[in-house]
Amino acid sequence: MDDNEYPPESDRRPHLSVERHLTVGPHVYQLTASGTGDDRIGLSLVGWNASGEVVSEISGGMSPTDLAPVADALTSTLAGLAALRRQRLTSTAPSALPGLPPKRHRNQGVRWSAEDDERLAARHRAGASPKALMEEFGRSRGGITARLEHLGLITPDGVPVTARKGGGSGPGEETGVISEAA
Hints:
4 helices, alpha+beta, N-terminal domain of TfIIb, globular, 6 strands, four-stranded antiparallel sheet
């Protein structure tokens, strides 16, 4: 029994537990978050394949004040990994020559600023090519793709998304609802 799963009898604070099940292809995932909201929140993620074998497992705890920044960091990190994986699986470019170091972009590993995000979004919406964005921002194709995904400008499959117009507080304002572009 996990200490975060059941509060002690003397603990009269409301105890919260959120459980989510997700099926992706042949795998089923269960995500559980529990706690009082004042103390560390216990998190558990378990994934099974069709035969019931555990294929993914993560567990731990965090402070409630860390939820938003950790969620942002986790989202952007996993989006970056997914973009890099897709790039490797679909890349037709020859790999680097043996013995030579791979090309390093000038801003590789550097944190994106809010100004960079705004400029990237504007250039992407203006139709700049991935190569032009790579050169302008000093980032790899995977870095540009991951950031566009993080900003909600493309889907994980690289399809551009657009905000639907109307329904906002004024005429022609965006609602924030995202849909795939045709």
